[in-house]
Structures are given as C-alpha cells and as structure tokens.
Amino acid sequence: MSSRTRFTAEAATTGSTIPYDGEPLAELMPVLIDEAVRKATWEYVSTLSTRLGACGKNVGQGPFASAPDFLVRILDTADPGHRHLLSGVSATLETLVSILRADTDPHGATHLDDTEALELTTVLATRLAALPGSLVMRTAAQGPQAASTAAGCERETSTPLRR
Question: What pTM does this model have?
Fold first, then answer.
C-alpha cells in the first residue's frame, strides 16, 4: 500500500469527517475546519479535565453535569431577542473559546444550534472546573427599536451573571 493511500485511510478513520452530498470544495472547507476545531476542542478538554483531577479522579465530571443547567439559567434570565454568548478558558497550552447564538421567536421559545450549545457547555464546564476564564453575553432586542446590552460573569462560579 502506498504511503498516500495509507495516509488517506488513516485520516478517514481518525480525522474529522463531515457528510458529503456533492457540495463544492469551497462550501465544504469551512464546515470541515469547524468540525476539526470542534474535535480538537473535545480532545483538549478531555485532557485538561483529567489533569485537573487528583489521584486519577476526573474532576471534570461535576462541571460537565452542571454546565448545561447553568447555560439554561443564563438564557432564561436574559431579555428575549438575539443573544450571543462567548465562553473562554485560559489553559496552560491553549485558550479555548466557544460562541453560541440563541434567538427567541415571537412566542418566547429559544432557538439555538445544538452543536454550538454542546461546544459552549464543554468549554463552560472546563471553566467551571477551576480554570481561569470568562463568560460574556450580548443581547439585542428584536424589531426596529433593537437595543443592545452586554453582560459578563467573572471566573468565580458563585458570582451571578451581572447585567
């Protein structure tokens, strides 16, 4: 087997993959890059959460369980409209950043991308596991009189979201 064939076979089984439905390469590349970044984020978060533990215990489990609830509480306390959340974690080797866009419809239901929400809660959980980081939310009301506000939360998990 040639080295190129071996590389292709290995990349297909270990690298990032996305479904292909005949789209041009120019449309596939941004999606593939996003998927590669997402996979790298998951791998890095897994490594970090293991390193944060003592005596082999993974301390990331508690924050991973509470991060989705924390995100729901944040979204529930925000004004309706367009919401843009950014969570970042400063780690030893890398800085992890994730963005989530969440909009409310006229009936008050929140709509968000599941993949973005999963990625944000992953970064948020890592932040909750005692790493320095931040969570910032920007809201904009819907309609012609759209006003914008920003809210932030410091590293301490006990600090409530301030508006």
Answer: 0.63
